[in-house]
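In this section we walk through a basic example: taking a raw amino acid sequence and producing a predicted 3D structure, encoded as discrete structure tokens. The instruction is simple. Fold the sequence below.
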Amino acid sequence: MVEPDRSPEPHRLHRMLAPRSVALVGASTVPNQPGNDMVLELQVSRFPGAVYPVNPKYDEVEGLDCYVGLADIPEVPDLAVLGVGNAGLEDQVRLAIDLGIGGLVIPGSVLSPDDTAESSLRQRVRDLALAADLPIVGGNCMGFYNVEKWFRTLPFHRPYELTEGGVTLIAQSGSVLTALLWNDQKLRFNLAISPGQELVTTTADYMDYALDQPSTRVIALFIEAVRSPENFRAALRKAADRGVPVVALKAGRSPAAAELALSHSGAIAGDDAAYQTMFERYGVMSVKSLDELAATALLLSNDRKPAAGGLAAIFDSGGERELMIDLAADIGVAFAEINESTTAVLREHLDHGLEPINPLDAWGTGRDYQTTFERCWQALMDDPDTAIGVFVADLTSGFHLHESFARICRRVHRRSTKPIAMLTNHVGTDSQDLARRVTDLGIPVLDGTVAGLLAVKHALAYRDFTGRPTVAAPTAPAQQVTDRWRARLAEPRTLSEAEGLALLADYGVPVMPHRVVTTAHDAVAAATELGLPVVLKTATDGILHKSEVRGVLLNLTDVDAVREAYLDLEQRLGPDVLVAPMLLPEVEMALGVVSDPQFGPMVLVAGGGIFIEVLHDRQLGLVPIDLDIAERMIHKLAIAPILDGVRGQPPVDRAAIANALVALSDLAADVGDLIAELDVNPLSATGTGCVALDALVVPKAAIAGASS
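The resulting token sequence is shown next.
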């Protein structure tokens, strides 16, 4: 009996990204043209599969038989590269679909002079591919490299070989792709993709494919925009679940850059704070430069993961050690606190006058320096508080001193299980040959002090991320509570302040006691019941910002003042008035729910007053959050030291603020899809708890109703 085939189904992008045969439509014999370069690229990569040039002008191209059209090829290829003009592109896509080709690469712009708002070439190609479930790399792309399958499809030819490795690079800028692929010879890729316009196949799809490849150790992203937010979030979740770190360089953070990203890529860059919040949730290392991206990807592609503790570093220069200490303080990298046993080893081997500390300057007279460096470096790496080590030297290939430093690193590396890197202080250091050889032995060479330290910071941060507990599930209220509020939020009108406070209270956010009254007599009675002094606020529908119309009257200390204040509000703004105790916060804070158009509801915690208005002191959390995340968000606020008490002021109850933030997240998880805006400002924080003093809740239905 034949056993059934239980091998897993190949990924839907397998035929396109790991083809066994390829058709090159538009192949050419003209040198230095894309049609010729794409043939040469496959030849230099030593692709073992079938290559079919297609062009009616030629019988052969670069020694390969050339075919008139796709239909004339003797087999259905897995992939077709459509290096043709836009005028003939739609017909070629239709033909590829009819033949059953597995995927396309479209380097061209997919733009036509006849494009209109109702009908464009780009939309027609997209519709055809979506209907046929046909994946496409592009348009307006540089193609891709599948290094471990010896496959390349780029419209430019550079005759050099690549060594396969564990980095998957997905760069929405073709120039970024080639900058890293062609120039940093230490980086070892398994896959490098230029997605271009992402007509149908997105960055998230490529990530999903890469995460199914056993060779993928780290994913490096250069992104301007995310065109499929839900799939992107799912890919990040998959990476986190599988322990594959993701390093992301997000362009378009500033308004000016975001506008250019839209004009360049045709996609909205999105709010940077929302991206950073999502990255934080899934352990994505967010970087700000190509140097930082390259260094972090290189370090994280290493098999070894940081242990507990901090950074150990050894130098042959006191000045460069001081520089690193300064920069590490700026960047936030902690050095390992070595123990007395390690210190004793250092003291035994160092020349007189050198301090046995970490980071260590081990260069003295130079006498027997190899023994000194090796023993001291081994001791530093063996220290229980060392998580990761960097040997700092401005490497020059062929220089006997630096070659000996590399040998010392190799020997210590063999005797250690912790990650070890070498680091140059200057990016322009002449180290390519030596750096390649050292990196190939499992000791990555990081270029530049700042980029190297940032890479170390990210490696330690990812270590900490992998040690975090799973995010706790949100707490849902009774079903009737959910049903009641979903029905109310579906109405096209803003919630009154009293309704907003009731919504918060139903989900566990502490709110101030209050009464809504419609007569002066009731206002006085409510003030007496709640306790003087009180505050009176207009509760008239439609007034969202009460202070702007003098709708808030504060510190009313007796019943006559309450009566007079009520009559004033009644005459000017209407009879509906909210009465509440006059509470003076020890620290004023703010909470909120932000509805991000790409990634859904997020909760916000901020310092109140000038902290949020002027200093923009806020932290966002992707819903749902739990107590651990809430506490980290509060800790990151600029106002955090004030919460702990300064200049004789008592500390406020941080735990109460964190619990209120989690309760707000529970609310957002349950009904946040119906909320356009929710502000709790101010939130009064004291040493014994916190309480919401005001609430503004605007349903999405109210926004839609106002615009219709």
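Looking at the output, two observations stand out. The CA atoms of residues 132 and 685 lie 58 Å apart. The first helix runs from residue 14 to 17. In the next section we compare this with other chains.
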